[in-house]
Amino acid sequence: MVENKAEIPEKYDLNAKWDACVDLSVRRFVYSSFAGGFAGLLLFPMSNVASGSPVTRWASVAFGAGLGFGSAYSECAHKFDTSSRKLTPNVPETPLPEVSK
């Protein structure tokens, strides 16, 4: 028996969008966390006691993870055709009057 499954256009397939966003978020989070950890080991070596504390290395891992998650969030917002709030001010269409000197 052959199933007659109607094809859902890619624009409206929410399951595929969610799958892609979860996959993208996990990959970017993990890769950027590893990159942050590697950068922390390079920038804050263990031999220098003052700047090589585990807290600074964990901070670099957290910074990398935040970058990865933020980039995945913005990419997923574009996939769902939404965007974060625009930070541009409301500029009126009419020009300002000229001031005479």
Automatic annotation (TrEMBL):
Coiled coil feature spans: none
Pfam family, one: DUF543
Alphabetically ordered keywords of this record: Membrane, Mitochondrion, Mitochondrion inner membrane, Transmembrane, Transmembrane helix
Topology of the protein relative to the lipid bilayer: Single-pass membrane protein
InterPro entries, alphabetized: Mic10 (IPR007512)
Cellular localisation: Mitochondrion inner membrane
Gene Ontology cellular component terms for the protein in this record: MICOS complex
Entry's family note: Belongs to the MICOS complex subunit Mic10 family.
Protein role: Component of the MICOS complex, a large protein complex of the mitochondrial inner membrane that plays crucial roles in the maintenance of crista junctions, inner membrane architecture, and formation of contact sites to the outer membrane.
Name under which the protein is recorded: Mitochondrial inner membrane organizing system protein 1
Organism: Salvia splendens
